[in-house]
Amino acid sequence: MNYGESVKKIPLHLQIVIALVLGAGFGALFPVDSGLIQITYSLDGEVIEENISEWDVLIFHREEHLIKSFSGGNAKAIIKFYNKNKSDITSLSLVAGVQEREILKILSLEGASSPATAIRPLGDLFIRLLSFLAIPLVLASLIAGAASLGDVRKLGKIGGKTFAIYICTTAIAISIGLGVANLIRPGEQISEQTKIKLLGDYQDKSSQDAVANLSVDIVDFFVNIVPKNPFFAVANGQMLQIVFFALMFGVTLTFIPKQQSAPLIAFFEAVTTTMIKMVDIIMLIAPFGVFALISATIADFGFGILGTLFWYSISVIVGLTLQTVLVYGGLIYLFSRANFWKFFKGLRNAQAIAFSTSSSAATLPVTLDCVENKIGVNREVSRFILPLGATINMDGTALYQGVAAVFIAQVYGMDLGLTEQLTIVLTAVLASIGTAPVPGVGLIMLVLILNSINVPAEGIALILGVDRILDMMRTITNVTGDSAVAVAVNGPLTKR
Ligand code: ASP
After folding, report:
1. Cα 244 to ligand 1 centroid, rounded to whole Å
2. What is this structure's pTM?
3. Residues 285-320: pLDDT tens digits?
4. Contacts 24+ apart (CB under 8 A), 368-372
5. Ligand 1 atom closest to the CA of 474, numbered from 1
6. What pLDDT does 205 receive?
7. All domains of the chain, ordered by start, with CATH?
């Protein structure tokens, strides 16, 4: 038996798990040197590339004014600051002991690379392949799903039930997040030194701008769900607008004569099926994509930061586990008498992809595949509920926002009363509907929540470093939550 044959014998989910573990190991073995910056500048007409690593203080200037200084060597925060403010920066100086060196005409600042980050393009390729499926899939499956439910009353019933369960599970998720954070009190376990370092490293003008520019206008939020131009919405990946258009289109198809609607419904059904079939092809490179994504992420962020924010990370992880086992386990048992472990086993490919891509949208095609073919949910249900869930239902994100809000408030020595905690529940439910299912958006929406309870939104600087890894974990919960609701709405399962 040759190598190819023996690899084929290993089931795909096992190949992905192996890729995850090996990728994490590879990333840990070749970490990026976080104290090293590759700087390119021009001197006397010559382009010079240099690695800089030793400085006590690094200062960015605009003419003779100081814009920002960084003590210590957190290259990532420095590069992020530079890239966001490069139009303002005219020079940088490095102070080491009593020596100061100034570099003018900076062309670029980049982080160090390692073999683990060098293979990142393979991971990006994998995410791109999955992402291009997402928008056509959401559009086609929601149109066909809404149309094939037959009449508006049936759609209203299923839609209403789905929406109600989505809102309830999200509200429960935030409450669990708040409960765990109030119990563990992670904000009180962090040392003054760590707090100052994290705030200093990650705080920059851009987060203050984000804070200033974000405000919730509920009326605007709802008005904006209706696209002016559906093609613009599709081209720009405006998920909520796409969902709105697709539902309207699907429902209206049921009002026109059957001989006209039938070919269109068949067309969108075929598009959906083709997109899901395409997943089988893309999943052939899943183990390589997952390996590349995980190794680059671990090399970049490391597990070390989880240690610095140990109690905060533990609170999020405990919350996500409780939500998954208790809430989803209870939900699927209550509504469809389904066995939690079988459900969990059927979903493992989608969960592994959610973890490595941090995007429920990119995972959607795989989720549909698992929920239909491994768990046995009716297509009529899954093709309507899952695209909707990927867009509006983000329990993991909401839970994490609950923990993060309490954590940041605790660090700032503020005690959140019942009113503030209820405000968090309300805003986080809304935010979870408006959060785009792509990496890192939950963090931006957190600013809205902090604003609503008057906690300094600059506090997100505290959790920025650990956000990517927790994003990977909360995306698993987001995807599992959508699937659990699909099982619940489906009722007793036909397969397995
Ligand atoms: N990455 C999450 C998702 O796609 C969203 C977030 O929490 O940032 O589901």
Report:
1. 20
2. 0.82
3. 989 999 999 898 888 777 766 677 889 999 999 999
4. 368/137, 368/141, 368/276, 368/279, 369/276, 369/279, 369/280, 370/346, 370/483, 371/346, 371/347, 371/483, 371/486, 371/487, 372/276
5. 7
6. 45
7. 37-112 (no CATH), 119-490 (1.10.3860.10)
